């Protein structure tokens, strides 16, 4: 799967003009990937699993630890209980030449970055990300850029989770590949919208809700929020944060200290919002007859 990801990045790189990077977790720390990336000129970033040799008696992370820290950066991380916190990471890096485990005379030129949490919360294991990349790292800013790339991997997992649990894309039985591809295209757009909505709700909660919702959806959200006082608040704008806090309870979210709506409750909430929108549309379109 790792090789397929790198090959896919190579296939689309020139066609789109976008700078593509294949990002992988610890299972991607294999020499075959390093060789493939070197031959096909594919950029990659992986989390290290093996402490590989750089010379006869020295290994890569021993060499990196001798370097002085170049600075600190902060990242958002999610705990197992779904709480989010900010972690402060101390950054070290250096260029290394890793020896091939089976071909003694061959070396792979990479950059190694260690991002280790400075003061993790009491009782919790701190972050310690050891990253390898074939993209050049010459200063603190470039090292932080690569660490930030790795954090995006978690969003990819969330995207796949929405496809599997929300859209149930794996359960499709459509009879042909062509039909499946068309359906998956719709599923991916829906999953992207949901993930983007949840992400922006946390990072930029003050933006206007009409950035992601139609005019009809915003008005229905106001109806839910203000109920009997809708007429008096009809002209008011609704922030994205306000919209999310209306939708999340529709999906079963219970507000609590430190809790934020996740993609699952937002998915259920949006589905209910769609049903409510249909109901409102039908109500307003039904002719009103004089009972007299």
In words, what does this structure look like?
This is Transposase Tn5 dimerisation domain-containing protein. Residues 190-281 form the Transposase Tn5 dimerisation domain. It holds the Pfam family Dimer_Tnp_Tn5. It is built from 9 helices and 6 strands. With 292 residues, it is of the alpha+beta class. It folds into 2 domains: 1-153, Transposase Inhibitor Protein From Tn5, Chain A, domain 1 (Alpha-Beta Complex), CATH 3.90.350; 172-285, Transferase Inhibitor Protein From Tn5, Chain A, domain2. α1 packs parallel to α2 (31-40), α4 crosses α5 (177-203) and α8 packs across α9.
Sum this structure up briefly.
This protein is an alpha+beta fold.
Q: Could you estimate the helical fraction of the residues in percent? A: 40-55%
Backbone structural class: alpha+beta
Unreliable stretches, pLDDT < 50, 5 or more residues? none
Strand content: 15-25%
**Neighbour order of strands in the largest sheet:** 1-2-6-5-4-3
Mean pLDDT, to the nearest integer, reads: 82
> Biggest β-sheet: count, sense, barrel?
6 strands, mixed
Count the beta strands: 6
Shape: elongated
Distance between the termini: 71 Å
**CATH homologous superfamily identity of the largest domain:** Transposase Inhibitor Protein From Tn5, Chain A, domain 1
